[in-house]
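Quick one: structure for this chain?
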Amino acid sequence: MRNIKNLVFEGGGILGTAYLGVLDYLVNNGWMRNIIRVAGTSAGAITACITCFNLPFSDIEKIAYSLDYKKVPSKSKFDRISQIPEDAKEVIEKLFGDANCIYRLINNYGWFSTEYFYRWIKEVISDQFDHTKKLPPYTFSDFRNPSLHKNNRPFLDLFIIGTNISMRTSKIFSYETTPTMEVAEAVRISMSIPLFFEAVIKEDVDTYGDFVRDVFCDGGLMNNYPLNIFDYPKFNSSLYHGINMTTLGVRFMSELKHNDIDNLLKYIESLLHASSYIQEHNYESNPLNKERSIIIDTHGISSLDFNISVNDDTYKFLYNQGYIAAKDFFNNKAYKLRD
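Got it. Here's what it folds into:
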């Protein structure tokens, strides 16, 4: 059986709950012992971040259970809304229902705040570090330094996918590319679904010394399933037809059907699905991609239905679908020996 060294998670909103079932199977059946690197987009970035801590499954589960999905799309007060006169805010409230969200959409290009999620992921990351050695924030460089971690536990190498809207390109955040970047911010960028969540705006100076303002959002916009991220000789000197067969990917599948678009939420979801179907051609172009992918059937559950909670029917269904998909993948011996 093949030696798995890399693990990649697709983006998928709340469908990422299914990854808990996948990890349950992988960890408890010994498939994680040789993993060196993890990568992911959006919900997959969150999973990759938690997975990279190299924890027992019981600890992974506790972290996952601590996320309150219903708070993730937050309508928290927008900082600069105080600049709007009160009478103008009243008019906006009457017309659109929430002045904070309207102002956030206009200025930060997204209806909901990601502040709750950002606080949560920062706390999760902080809990993995020895605060007597270094206080937050923690960077990709810190993730590579076991002397800063609790019990000197080494982490797996982490790769997060975002989208730089200003440059119109996909962006990889990692120790190699962005060593001084806060990991929590990279994960926040990767899960910031366009229009649904506010974008992350970063101000910097370019190589010419000029001031630049970069707008970042969900990595899934351009690379929702970064399965090929490790298809390079530096990660495996023995590529098989240009493919790194020591990479295992996990992704979602659902029957394509007509979506009645009657609100902004459904429009955004359909827009993202349309983008992912374009990317699907890259995945389908090589049969070896299916050979190295666990595929989870989500039965049409909406990726943006954040009205779920731990152990409700949807949560348990997705968890079980992830576990079953992983179990079936290995039991069917789809993972052939091709290092």
